[in-house]
Amino acid sequence: MNIEEFREYCLSKRYVTECFPFDEKTLVFKVADKMFALSGLENHPSTVNLKCDPEKSIQLREEFEDVIAGFHMSKKHWNTISIEGNISNEFIKELVDHSYDLVVKGMTKKKQNELGLL
């Protein structure tokens, strides 16, 4: 998966926006103002940081050489994934979905309800 395909998939999710809050090279995707994915656009091959359940994070790092602890992120809750590596596009989409869902679940029920995400 290239970075543009990744971007398109992230933006296809409900209530997702993209921005550059840190600098002009770090693209961030948010759902209702909460970050669920980011990518340093200067990285080649392309890598992305995705939120992940702590136990699943460890499992993924052990199983895939293209998954490492989140670069410049909480190592417990974030992974850095080489999206141009040996991980299938479908599995990358599953990881994006997982990250998005974790962020949505972390919102208050009121906020989830307001957005129609329940």
TrEMBL record:
Keyword DNA-binding: yes
UniProt GO molecular function: DNA binding
Residues in the signal sequence: none
Keyword annotations: DNA-binding
PANTHER family to which the protein is assigned, alphabetical: CYTOPLASMIC PROTEIN (PTHR35145:SF1), CYTOPLASMIC PROTEIN-RELATED (PTHR35145)
Name of the protein described by the UniProt record: Putative DNA-binding protein (MmcQ/YjbR family)
